Amino acid sequence: MTTTALPTYEDAIARFEPVIGLETHVELGTQTKMFCGCRTEFGAEPNTQVCPVCLALPGALPVANRAGIEATIRIGLALNCDIATWCRMARKNYFYPDMPKNFQTSQYDEPLCAEGYVDVEYEGKPYRIGIERVHLEEDTGKSLHVGGATGRIQGATESLVDYNRAGIPLVEIVTKPVPGLGALAPEIAKAYVTELRDIIRSLGVSDVRMEQGSLRCDVNTSLNKPGEEWGTRTETKNVNSLRSVERAVRSEIIRQASLLDEGTRIIQETRHFHEDRGDTSPGRSKETATDYRYFPEPDLVPIAPDPAWVAELKAALPERPSSKRARLREDWGISEIDMQSVANAGAVELIEETIAAGASPAGARKWWMGELARRANETGIDLADIGATPLQVAELQKLVDAGKLNDKLARAVLEGVVAGEGDPAAVMAARGLEVVNDEGALTAAVDEAIAANPDIAAKIREGKVAAAGALVGAVMKTTRGQADAKTVRDLILARLS
Amino acid sequence: MAAISREEVAHLARLSRLAVTEQELDQFAGQLDVILQSVARVGEVAADDIPPTSHSVPLTNVYRDDVPQPSLTQDEALSGAPDAFDGRFRVPRILDEEA
């Protein structure tokens, strides 16, 4: 370890040019695994979604899942790739207990999709990221290392393995090396993964959740002096959030610059990103491609997608998320930043449908991005599964617009909707939440009471909230008891705060 | 000339996580050599008009529908395992590696 202080990022980037590359793994959301009919549900009891094929019991033979092939082709098309007319799966041989077969079924020199690109926008400027290949493989089992520090292999005495995940279709998307980004390399890396996530989510082929591991990212980084050849790259793994993509590139640039300053050579290695510290440490030394002894998988016949089918899939691709966002942003009249948070919350379609069901853009956005997004964050449940539908949110907003609910009552109604008590109108009726008087008449009565009792009003203004009771009484009198006392009290306090 | 060296056998054994004794290295090098030489003879008789063949059947696009089939139970899955704990396969730790 070096004891000299690390250079600052600005300092490092002033002297070196970074080249980055990203390898992203996407777990497909198919019902069954890639080569057998086992379910793929997240969080099932260990080793309950396994069979002779994914446990590699002798004699078991794989058959490819059509949905996995189709999803991979659609991802390739959405990333502007050429689709192979004929290709094969390959065995990647390695001996590690996360794969019971002692190989991973993958693709080697014949990927299903190749030579594409993704256009990324950052601060209003476009950047084109080349896609080298998109190939299909299978996920591995999950190991739990025990006997030492929990979950870490250092000091562990044994590993406990769950093969539920083994065999779930995994799509690997590899970019071409991206030079020329300079100081923006970390931000563009993050923008690329964000765009990729949005594109794949729009295809509906994966839930692309980094925190659950259905979207995983490895970041390659190298540095060179201006005008010189590209440097040796490192591969950073364990990058589990969009923010970490940016941090991992940044920290690796600083670390490599520090080594190069000392005249130390960069070793080609796998490094581990630490979310807590924001830096990387060396991981396992990588086996070389020849050590994997790739060869065509004899148990699976070649994949030869019919060009007519591919053309059909291409024609049916959804609108690109970036152009859709630009279009909706204009329709809704909101800022770029607001639109980005809507996209990040997974609320674009929900708000779109709520507006289609009759709500105003502002109203629709307010509920999804306010109350419901907060609830989704707190519970870790997807916004789409939160318990309220676009139709219900639109109905709620209509009740507010019609003056039947004020903001506070509407929140209570929404709570009932989410709790499964029914549609907004039903919840309003069942819980007796309807505004008794229209806001205008109540406000007039409140203003009248305040004007008639200036001394009490002054006390409330000074913070003596208890004095409000007298004014509530006055309002109840003028409205002949038909007002909701609590609403009146709130109105008075709001008026005098 | 031997098609495979002792060192290559040792390398393969390491990749396969197999503990192979010095004596076995010689033994396996000899056996693998016979296999490789036999395979090499196929290359000798294959003319230019015979393309490399990875699959013996002329089939493509054999797929199944994405429909769940019953899996094994946890007990069944673990029944052949040398060791298990808490519903999982128990294996010795792997040295010097982190997947």
TrEMBL record, chain A:
Read off the Pfam families from this record. GatB_N, GatB_Yqey
| Family matches, as SMART domains | GatB_Yqey (SM00845)
Q: Which GO terms describe its molecular function?
A: ATP binding; glutaminyl-tRNA synthase (glutamine-hydrolyzing) activity
Q: Which EC number(s) does UniProt give?
A: 6.3.5.-
- Keyword list, A-Z: ATP-binding, Ligase, Nucleotide-binding, Protein biosynthesis
Q: Which residues form the Asn/Gln amidotransferase domain?
A: 349-496
First-tier enzyme category under EC: ligase
Q: What does this protein do?
A: Allows the formation of correctly charged Asn-tRNA(Asn) or Gln-tRNA(Gln) through the transamidation of misacylated Asp-tRNA(Asn) or Glu-tRNA(Gln) in organisms which lack either or both of asparaginyl-tRNA or glutaminyl-tRNA synthetases. The reaction takes place in the presence of glutamine and ATP through an activated phospho-Asp-tRNA(Asn) or phospho-Glu-tRNA(Gln).
**Xref: PANTHER family:** GLUTAMYL-TRNA GLN AMIDOTRANSFERASE SUBUNIT B MITOCHONDRIAL AND PROKARYOTIC PET112-RELATED, GLUTAMYL-TRNA(GLN) AMIDOTRANSFERASE SUBUNIT B, MITOCHONDRIAL
In the record, the note on similarity to other proteins reads:
Belongs to the GatB/GatE family. GatB subfamily.
**What name does UniProt use for this protein?**
Aspartyl/glutamyl-tRNA(Asn/Gln) amidotransferase subunit B
UniProtKB/TrEMBL annotation, chain B:
Source superkingdom: Bacteria
According to its UniProt entry, the function of this protein is described as: Allows the formation of correctly charged Asn-tRNA(Asn) or Gln-tRNA(Gln) through the transamidation of misacylated Asp-tRNA(Asn) or Glu-tRNA(Gln) in organisms which lack either or both of asparaginyl-tRNA or glutaminyl-tRNA synthetases. The reaction takes place in the presence of glutamine and ATP through an activated phospho-Asp-tRNA(Asn) or phospho-Glu-tRNA(Gln).
Tell me which Pfam families the record gives.
Answer: GatC (PF02686)
Give the source lineage, highest ranks first: Bacteria, Bacillati, Actinomycetota, Actinomycetes, Micromonosporales
What is the designated name of this protein?
Aspartyl/glutamyl-tRNA(Asn/Gln) amidotransferase subunit C
Q: Name one GO biological process term.
A: regulation of translational fidelity
Q: Which gene encodes it?
A: gatC
What EC number(s) does this enzyme carry?
A: 6.3.5.-
Q: Which chemical reaction does it catalyze?
A: L-aspartyl-tRNA(Asn) + L-glutamine + ATP + H2O = L-asparaginyl-tRNA(Asn) + L-glutamate + ADP + phosphate + 2 H(+); L-glutamyl-tRNA(Gln) + L-glutamine + ATP + H2O = L-glutaminyl-tRNA(Gln) + L-glutamate + ADP + phosphate + H(+)
Family, according to the entry, reads as follows: Belongs to the GatC family.
Acyltransferase found in the keyword field? no
Q: Which PANTHER family match?
A: GLUTAMYL-TRNA(GLN) AMIDOTRANSFERASE SUBUNIT C, MITOCHONDRIAL
- Write down the species: Paractinoplanes tereljensis
Summary of subunit composition and partner proteins: Heterotrimer of A, B and C subunits.
Q: Which UniProt keywords apply?
A: ATP-binding, Ligase, Nucleotide-binding, Protein biosynthesis
User: Which molecular-function annotation in GO is an example for this chain?
Assistant: ATP binding
